[in-house]
Amino acid sequence: MAILTNKIMEKEFIDGLFVNDKSKAPSFIDAKLGITPKFIEYYNKNCDAKGNLKIDIKTANSGKQYAEKDTWKPEQQNNTPNEPKPEPVDTSDIDTDRIPF
Q1: 36-44: which pairs have CB atoms within 8 A and are 24 or more residues apart?
Q2: Fewer CB atoms < 10 Å away: N or C end of the chain?
Q3: Which of 36, 45, 91 is nearest to 69 (CA)?
Q4: Quick check: is 100 in a domain?
Q5: Residue 37 lies in a domain
Q6: Residue 6 domain-assigned?
Q7: 36-67 pLDDT per residue, tens
Q8: Distance from the first to the final alpha carbon of the chain
């Protein structure tokens, strides 16, 4: 379980997507992924309306990397429509010839 802003979120691992050991890979490789046919099924069930599926590659305390579905959503803001707008500043009396820049 991950706790973020006092909310408990269950980890959702990605079926058919594996983060493989990269210890023998060159240093410019950040992650090695393995994809099986189960991933296509998982993708079809979990993508959003635009066809996107967000995935985080994380590192466990053991040092092993894993893939987890990114379930983060921004918190809804309480926008009040009656919020006062700032009054415009009258700049007509400013002598712009005297401004040094």
Answers
A1: 39/14, 39/15, 40/16, 41/15, 41/16, 42/14, 42/15, 42/16, 42/17
A2: C
A3: 45
A4: no
A5: yes
A6: no
A7: 999 999 999 999 999 999 999 999 999 899 99
A8: 56
